[in-house]
């Protein structure tokens, strides 16, 4: 499949991506990711490996689009943090204004 990533054309195949990512350890997933084989990789890491470009040169969306067209499963969020499962939220509030007990005159 022909796709354009960072303004450069690439001929990518599913087997070629699998071969390129074989033996590559996944980095910590903090955003968009793609499942390749049994591992989940950040899309920027996949883009860097398959294009040999600096990850700052392309967007995650370009890689997600290409991986989706090749039949890989892409994810928007990290696996460990499903929506709404963040645990208790602690808010700190001040009980009185700092440095005084009443309104400030201007």
From TrEMBL:
Domain of life: Bacteria
Residue segments, region Disordered: 76-106
InterPro entries tied to this protein: SCO5918-like (IPR047719)
Protein name (Swiss-Prot/TrEMBL): Uncharacterized protein
Species of origin: Streptomyces corchorusii
